[in-house]
Each structure stands twice: as structure tokens, then as C-alpha cells.
UniProtKB/TrEMBL annotation:
This protein's UniProt keywords: DNA-binding, Repressor, Transcription, Transcription regulation
Species assigned in the record: Streptomyces aidingensis
Classification via PROSITE patterns: HTH_LACI_2 (PS50932)
A GO molecular-function descriptor: transcription cis-regulatory region binding
Alphabetical list of SUPFAM superfamilies matching this protein: lambda repressor-like DNA-binding domains, Periplasmic binding protein-like I
Protein name per its UniProtKB record: LacI family transcriptional regulator
Keyword Zinc-finger set for record: no
Domain of life: Bacteria
Length: 328
């Protein structure tokens, strides 16, 4: 016969409600009692009924995590870290992909709202107004976006962009092309502002090219504009765009880094395997995944009220083969 909560309570010498709290609200149970109950539950093979817990506590112990393109190698490390951290807190994560479509993003949020206790939105494509409206329904945390009244995890891409400009200036580059991302991207806007401020101190001419699709194809399509700008260096929205522009420039007979240096953003496996290996801005994606889930669970524990905690994670440049001295 299946082991019941009463069996665990009897063997532990505690009330049934104490066993229930051990699994549904462990912070309300003393450490010694919690450890004893969990140990005995493990010995007996007891597994709490999640559906029953949801009816009792009003929680599903499920979280939603929505990304704009699951095929982009930027997202998997974040997803894995978020899932692992959620599992430690006895939560499960439903992952969904919007394919860069804001309408699909809103539909997914509305669907998940019935099945989860909160949602993490990573690099959302919805407007801030839409996110604020949807955030009235259940707890939200946004990653790489600032939305009034919502908690956020921000990777300081502005810091990384400034370091990239400094690196390129030290190599003698004086004409820089900035390949932006999709329209409305918070990351793209932060990169632009930071690059504009940084080039002013180095006497560098900056040409902004975009918006661009945040894909390899987007980078390839921008290659001719880069060539036409006369730039000897490129700062790309992400590693995929950087890899694409390297391919596109190669097709035009432009060598990287001999003729043009290229810097990406994200430090993905694709960039490390590319030839030339990609100089890039390291984004702390695993830390962002863990932090976003932690902030979301804080909001859930607070009863779903709107919170506005903000965590900023540092970034930095790693220099590889795709950057070199400016051509004579």
C-alpha cells in the first residue's frame, strides 16, 4: 500500500499538519524537526501528492520561463541554471519559446497563468505597457529589461560594451560599426548608449546599423552595410550576429581580423568554436537564471504582490582571435 502522510507523522512523532508544513512551507518548521520528517519520509518512500498540495496551499509549485528564441545558444545555460535552482526549491519549470513574436509571447503568458505560480520573462519582445498589464495577474520577473513595478535581473551589457570600445581603441581602430539587435531590445539600446559615450573619449567614429534580426542570417545581411561604412571594427548585438557578419564579410573578400575586427556578445559555445574564435562580452547567463528564479519565489512567498527588486550582474570582455590591430 502507498505510504500516506499519516504514516510519516506517526513514525516521526509529530502531527500530520507538521508533516504537511515540512513539504509545503518548510521555513515554518524547525530545522531539527524538518530534517527528521524528511529523513523518515525518505526511508518510508513517501512522496507528497502535488495536486493535493496545490489545493491546500493555492500553489502549483510550477514556474514559467519564457525566452524569445530557444535555438539561440545564449538561452540554454540560463534555462538549465533556472531549472536546477527551482528543483532545489521543489519547483518545476515550464519552458516556452516565442520565436521573437510578441503576440505569441502574450498568448503563452495567458496560457501559463493558469498553470504556474509565476513567470520569468527573458529578453521579452512585448512592450513595457503590455508586460505591466499582464504582471497584474501573477508574479513576474524580467531578465534584461526594466519594467516599472517588476523585479528585474540585468546583465550589465553597457559595462561590456565600454570595455569592447576600449579594447578596439587600444588596437588603433578609429571607425566602429555597431550592429544593433531587434527593434525595442533593451540590450541593444544599452549597448548603443554605452558605445556612444565610450567612443567620444577615444576619437572614434561610430556608425549604428540596424535594427537587425538577432541571428546569424541577420549578421550576414548586415555585412555589406559594414563594408560600406568604412569601419575597421564591429561590435555586434550577440555572438550569432557576429558570426554571421564574419561569414558575410568573408563572402565579400573582407578578412577578419586582418581587414575588420569583430566583437560579439554572450560568450556562447558557437563563438568559441567559430574560426576565428570570437572576441566577445561574457554574459553571466547561469547566474541570471538562478537569480531570476530566486526573485520570483520571493514574490510568490510574499503572496504575489508586485515587487521591484533589481539585481545587476557584471559583464566583461574575453579577447580571442576575431580582433586585431587596425589595418594601415
Amino acid at each position: 500500500m502507498a505510504v500516506t502522510i499519516r504514516d510519516v507523522a506517526r513514525a516521526s512523532g509529530v502531527h500530520v499538519s507538521t508533516v504537511s508544513r515540512t513539504f509545503s512551507a518548510p521555513h515554518l518548521v524547525s530545522a531539527d524537526t524538518r530534517e527528521r520528517v524528511l529523513a523518515i519520509a525518505g526511508e518510508l518512500g513517501y512522496r507528497p501528492n502535488r495536486a493535493a498540495r496545490a489545493l491546500t496551499t493555492g500553489r502549483t509549485h510550477n514556474l514559467g520561463l519564457i525566452v524569445s528564441d530557444i535555438a539561440n545558444p545564449f538561452f540554454p545555460p540560463l534555462i538549465k541554471a533556472a531549472q536546477a535552482y527551482a528543483r532545489e526549491r521543489e519547483y518545476h519549470v515550464f519552458v516556452a519559446d516565442t520565436d521573437e513574436d510578441p503576440q505569441a509571447e502574450e498568448e503563452l503568458i495567458q496560457t501559463l497563468a493558469k498553470q504556474v505560480d509565476g513567470v520569468v520573462l527573458v529578453a521579452p519582445r512585448l512592450t513595457n505597457q503590455a508586460i505591466e498589464r499582464l504582471g497584474m495577474e501573477l508574479p513576474f520577473v524580467v531578465v534584461n529589461r526594466k519594467v516599472k513595478g517588476l523585479s528585474a535581473v540585468l546583465m550589465d551589457v553597457a559595462q561590456g560594451a565600454a570595455q569592447a570600445v576600449q579594447h578596439l581603441a587600444s588596437l588603433g581602430h578609429r571607425r566602429l560599426a555597431l550592429l544593433g539587435g531587434p527593434r525595442g531590445s533593451w540590450t541593444s539600446e544599452q549597448m548603443r548608449k554605452s558605445a556612444e559615450a565610450a567612443v567620444a573619449g577615444h576619437g572614434i567614429d561610430l556608425t549604428a546599423i540596424g535594427p537587425n534580426a538577432p541571428t546569424e542570417e541577420g549578421g550576414q545581411a548586415a555585412a555589406r552595410a559594414v563594408q560600406g561604412s568604412g569601419a575597421t571594427a564591429v561590435l555586434a548585438y550577440n555572438d550569432l550576429v557576429a558570426i554571421g557578419v564574419i561569414e558575410g564579410l568573408g563572402e565579400l573578400g573582407v578578412e577578419v581580423p586582418g581587414d575588420v575586427s569583430v566583437v560579439g556578445v554572450d560568450d556562447t559555445v558557437a563563438g568559441r568554436l567559430n574560426r576565428p574564435k570570437l572576441t566577445t562580452i561574457v554574459m553571466p547567463t547561469p547566474a541570471a537564471g538562478r537569480t531570476a528564479v530566486d526573485l520570483l519565489l520571493q514574490a510568490v512567498d510574499a503572496g504575489g504582490g508586485r515587487t521591484a527588486a533589481q539585481t545587476i550582474l557584471e559583464t566583461g570582455i574575453v579577447v580571442r582571435e576575431s580582433t586585431g590591430p587596425a589595418p594601415a
